[in-house]
Write a structure and sequence with these properties.
- The protein is α+β, with helices and mostly antiparallel strands.
- It folds into two domains: about 90 residues, no CATH class; about 160 residues, NADH Oxidase, CATH 3.40.109.
- The chain contains twelve helices and four strands; from the N terminus they run H-H-H-H-H-H-H-E-H-E-H-H-E-H-E-H.
- A four-stranded antiparallel β-sheet has the order 1-2-4-3.
- Helix 2 runs antiparallel to helix 4, helix 7 packs antiparallel against helix 10 and helix 8 packs antiparallel against helix 11.
- The longest helix has 21 residues.
- The chain is globular, with a radius of gyration of 23 Å.
- The two termini are about 40 Å apart.
- The relative contact order is 0.12.
- About 20% of the residues have low confidence.
Length: about 290
């Protein structure tokens, strides 16, 4: 069945509005950036919410709070977004008010006086590792950096499987990187692997992806992996992101359901070499432009 475009867009609008309410008000904290919801939109939402409050899990108190925020937005700060409005009143918002992060102000400490750009420029794909093992604590830090990556509609469509057991790592290297995949046989020297498995995305992200003909899930996973390898670089750990491996054998070894997709494998280890050749990048004018293509 193909829905008329008008109905489809209306459905997307409801999904986005409900998501905005749930993200901004579920914790009953006056978050500074839940959305710019107008009174008109809220009036439209009131009908389905009142009719099916249990199914939508939206309570009357949240609707009232959202109306109050919207009145403030429309009357006081008509041309600015809500986050700026609340900063005017309460000062800078805390860095995090997300569940399970502890909240509060967080300061990023830079090691060795290295700027972020210098860190990015220093990162290379490492294919030769020494015999040192990686502490579990450092692997957890790398995955934590990936876990905080942004994703479409905050779907977080990923699962990271960390392999630091020596015996299991050798089995994976022998079976998943042999035959036609032996061009990546160097992974046998790696101290650990991190498999990135794609998980189900949220409905709003899936619908948006269909309309845009864009796979947001894979984009999100790419962002998360970049977080991971840059964190590893800061810790002095070399990485190589791999997309060429025997997925079927990997699933069998690690009991990964056949319905799942292993998007990438990241090899980690301490680089055997300390210097790397200069990369040949495209000219900046070829890849960057301002205000026009």
């Amino acid at each position: 069945m193909i829905l008329p475009m008008g109905i489809l867009f209306q459905a997307i609008r409801y999904v986005n509005l409900l998501r905005a309410l749930k993200r901004g008000l579920a914790d009953m904290v006056s978050r500074a950036s839940f959305s710019e919801i107008s009174l008109t939109d809220l009036a439209l939402l009131t009908v389905p919410v009142s009719a099916q409050p249990r199914r939508l899990k939206i309570i009357k108190k949240e609707i009232i709070m959202a109306c109050g925020f919207s009145i403030f937005y429309i009357i006081i700060k008509n041309s600015q977004n809500l986050q700026l409005s609340f900063r005017d009143i309460h000062g800078p918002a805390p860095v995090s008010r997300v569940r399970n992060t502890g909240g509060g102000q967080r300061n990023i400490k830079k090691e060795h006086n290295m700027t972020f750009l210098q860190l990015v420029k220093s990162r290379r794909s490492v294919r030769s590792y020494d015999a040192r093992l990686i502490k579990r604590e450092d692997l957890e830090i790398c995955v934590e950096a990936a876990r905080h990556a942004p994703s479409a509609c905050n779907s977080q469509p990923w699962k990271f499987i960390v392999i630091d057991d020596i015996a299991k790592k050798e089995v994976i290297a022998k079976n998943a990187f042999s035959g036609i995949y032996d061009m990546n046989a160097f992974v046998r020297e790696a101290a650990a692997f991190i498999l990135v498995v794609s998980e189900r995305t949220k409905l709003s992200a899936w619908m948006g992806g269909k309309l845009r003909n864009t796979n947001f899930r894979r984009i999100d996973i790419g962002i998360a992996c970049e977080h991971l390898v840059l964190q590893a670089q800061e810790l002095g750990i070399g990485t190589c992101i791999l997309g060429w491996f025997n997925e079927k054998k990997l699933k069998k070894i690690l009991f990964i359901p056949a319905s799942k997709k292993i998007e990438l494998v990241i090899a980690l280890g301490y680089p055997e070499q300390s210097e790397f050749p200069e990369r040949h990048l495209k000219d900046k004018d070829e890849v960057v432009s301002f205000n026009t293509y």
